[in-house]
Write a structure and sequence with these properties.
There is one protein chain. With 179 residues, this protein is mainly α. It has helices at 2-12, 18-29, 38-47, 52-90, 111-123, 137-146, 151-176. It is built from seven helices and no strands. Helix 2 (18-29) packs parallel to helix 4 and helix 4 packs across helix 6. It is elongated. Pfam families: VTT_dom. Keywords: Membrane, Transmembrane, Transmembrane helix. InterPro entries: DedA_domain, VTT_dom. This is YqaA family protein.
Length: 179
């Protein structure tokens, strides 16, 4: 098993694949798909320690682009949701009769949902600094899009948070797993 892992890490660290692999894994892990990119970054750096800053910057770029995709996903979902709602309320004959399309926003939100919405509106784009957090970070980007928080400031704050995460987590992993 250890030989297989070493062979995989060696393949991923090849100059023609290493940084591009980190970019793709970081991008996918920033969407709502469950995937962690830190092992790919740490594996590349374990085999090529000279690529530290390049790997951190490439992973940050990929992860930030994935966060921007999540922001747009949230914004487009909101547009589609409201369009379907307007069609249904207008009584349009062409309105979809799909029972999965809501006719109105939920009347009762949980206390946590109300608090999250208030918190996001209060802090605005700066809330995207927390997009690096596990479990809640990726949905946070989508919610920022749903709430129509300004796109470029959100991306800016996402990039800062994600850069700091990669810097700290990669340095920590390399400290406890030296070459």
């Amino acid at each position: 098993m250890e030989a297989w892992i070493q062979q995989l890490l060696t393949w991923l660290a090849l100059p023609q694949f290493g940084l591009s692999t980190v970019f793709v894994v970081a991008l996918i892990s920033a969407t709502l798909l469950p995937l962690g990119s830190e092992p790919a970054v740490a594996g590349l750096l374990h085999l090529n320690p000279d690529l530290f800053w390049q790997a951190i910057l490439v992973a940050t770029a990929g992860n930030t682009l994935g966060g921007a995709i999540s922001w747009w996903t949230g914004a487009l979902a909101r547009t589609a949701w409201y369009k379907a709602r307007r069609l249904r309320h207008a009584g349009d004959a062409a309105a979809p009769t799909n029972p999965l399309i809501p006719t109105a926003p939920p009347n009762k939100q949980s206390r946590h949902q109300r608090m999250a919405r208030i918190w996001l509106r209060k802090f605005g784009a700066k809330a995207c600094l927390l997009s690096w957090l596990p479990i809640v970070g990726d949905p946070l980007c989508a919610v920022a899009g749903w709430l129509r928080l300004p796109f470029w400031p959100c991306v800016f704050y996402m990039a800062i948070g994600k850069f700091l995460r990669y810097l700290v987590m990669t340095a920590t992993i390399l400290h406890f797993w030296p070459s």
